[in-house]
Design goal:
6-stranded parallel beta sheet, 4-stranded antiparallel beta sheet, alpha/beta, 14 helices
Length: 534
């Protein structure tokens, strides 16, 4: 008999413990029953960079938590296909004009013939789909995912002069009447997204419908960029659609290239070759296409920028072979990177509700304004290898500043990824670990007066019968700047003293965290947002 955790959830509803507010009537703002979590709609646009490939594998393992609306091939300054007619292309300051390459104008750049890395990832997903469904019924079918694949504006870097199947799909999603936001992730350049928006502008700008349509789209669309990799955000989207939200992230886990170079001791184990082999690269069809150091692969044969598949060579030897070594060689089998993870790692239904607002923060980090951060800025006029490595380190440092105030989510995120990889090769529910169930009956957003005592009661259970440790903590992303007093913080029932100096309208974010002792240990949360009343 297959264990169904949705039936399990229903069976424990009578055991939930009420959230109680001493002396106040709570105001429900966005409370939802945990078994009816919102599934955010998301479009992925990606170029064939090897860390996009890796991010895509992780994304597919979290496709149970989102509504996948598009999987679209994109171009960027780092990858573009060309038109197949020999037309040469050149944009000053691009990758191909740095590192002493001087190879363009050229008919294409770092794009494999018959490129299909998205198709390959979905094909691998199809092989493990029967196993995944046993552990989580909400995984979408491979047929559904295949129906979402399109080729976007891939011919030339930053070209938005004509429509593509990818831009047409985005256009239709942007204009549809489905409720809620539409998240569009740009793992490469924005040109396919920009073309979709431009086609709408061209059709409606001089009509009486334009202002209504523009406002609707600006409220609906949320862009999730990995930087502005082809300048089309800066040159077209921002000037013409200034009210579209543009979420970039900082402070969260460092999923990027070179993460091991600055990893904390508690994080570094999850980047080693032994951990990667056991939990990721050695796990079935999805693991077989996941890129690690020294795996013997290249995304494009002869690509002088992709030396990551080679093993047994020093940095100097690789340079003598003609490769542009912009990151030092690492241990064979170890982590290379999943630099696009921050765009979607706030989407999983882990209870942090991080996708609801940019400032909430979660496994993908916390939002910053686009003016604060550009991960693809390089030193002008300096094309030395050391300058490029310094620029990479600076970009990763900007993108992933871990402060004492922001929790270290990386171990929990990596263990969760490992568990889902194990699901993909495990045909019996009982032979893998599953996350704890964390519930709070009552509103997840409440009002409280300064000086009040709030009692927060949660219920914790585990579908595998594992022992679960519990703690309540304050996530310092609310607008109340100081620390609150928590008593009984390591039990289901905690008390929070609202400081007397808290001002009306300020917010305090409280997190109930539960971690089981399974293999690997898995963590889930519930976030309660307290708004200070008058």
């Amino acid at each position: 008999m297959i264990f169904n955790r949705h039936i399990f959830l229903s069976s424990i509803k009578s055991l939930t413990i009420a959230l109680m507010i001493v002396g106040l009537v709570p105001l429900q703002i966005n409370a939802q029953p945990p078994e009816k979590k919102t599934r955010p709609r998301i479009v992925i646009t990606a170029d064939p960079e090897l860390d996009d490939n890796n991010s895509l594998i992780r994304f597919l393992l979290y496709s149970s938590d989102v509504e996948v609306e598009g999987l679209i091939y994109a171009s960027s300054q780092f990858h573009w296909k060309g038109d197949g007619k020999g037309t040469k292309w050149y944009v000053p300051g691009r990758e191909y004009s740095r590192f002493g390459l001087d190879t363009c104008p050229c008919p294409s750049w770092r794009w494999a013939k018959n490129e299909r890395f998205i198709h390959d990832a979905v094909d691998a997903y199809a092989k493990v789909y029967p196993n995944l469904k046993i552990h989580e019924p909400n995984y979408p079918s491979p047929e559904l995912l295949r129906s979402k694949i399109r080729y976007g504006n891939i011919e030339f870097d930053g070209d938005i002069s004509k429509n593509s199947p990818g831009s047409e799909l985005i256009r239709s999603l942007v204009l549809d009447e489905k409720p809620g936001p539409l998240f569009i992730a740009a793992w490469g350049g924005h040109s396919t997204i920009a073309r979709a928006l431009r086609s709408i502008q061209e059709q409606y700008e001089f009509t009486t419908e334009w202002e209504v349509i523009k406002k609707k789209i600006s409220r609906k669309v949320i862009l999730l960029p990995s930087g502005d990799q082809d300048d089309t955000y800066a040159k077209y989207i921002k000037p013409n659609w200034p009210d579209i939200e543009y979420r970039q992230f900082r402070e969260g886990p460092n999923y990027g290239y070179g993460a091991q170079l600055r990893a904390k001791p508690e994080d570094s184990i999850y980047l080693t070759s032994s951990w990667m082999k056991e939990n990721v690269s050695g796990r079935g069809p999805l693991g077989s296409i996941y890129r690690v150091w020294g795996d013997g692969k290249q995304m494009v044969k002869g690509d002088v920028m992709d030396y990551f598949g080679f093993s047994g060579y020093t940095n100097e030897q690789l340079r003598s072979m003609g490769y542009r070594v912009w990151m030092p060689v690492q241990e064979k089998g170890s982590w290379i990177g999943e630099g696009d993870n921050p765009t979607f790692m706030n989407m999983p239904g882990n209870g942090l509700r991080a996708f609801e607002k940019s400032s909430y923060g979660g496994w993908g980090g916390r939002g910053i304004s686009n003016e604060e951060f550009n991960p693809f800025s390089f030193p002008a006029g300096d094309t030395s290898q050391q300058a490029m490595i310094s620029a990479l380190n600076s970009a990763n440092s900007q993108a992933n500043r871990i402060t004492n105030a922001y929790p270290n989510f990386f171990p929990a995120a990596q263990r969760d990824f490992a568990a889902r990889m194990k699901w993909s090769v495990t045909p019996k529910y009982a032979n893998a670990n599953h996350e704890p169930v964390v519930t709070i009956q009552g509103p997840l957003s409440i009002l409280a007066a300064p000086g009040a005592t709030i009692r927060l009661n949660g219920n914790i259970s585990d579908p595998d019968g594992d022992k679960v440790t519990v703690k309540w903590w304050q996530f310092h992303v609310g607008t109340y700047p100081d620390t609150v007093t928590i008593t009984n913080g390591n039990t289901n029932q905690a008390k929070v003293l609202i400081p007397k100096d808290a001002l009306a309208g300020q917010t305090i974010h409280m997190i109930l965290e539960a971690t089981d002792n399974g293999s690997p240990p898995l963590t889930r949360y519930q976030r309660v947002i307290i708004t200070i009343s008058r």
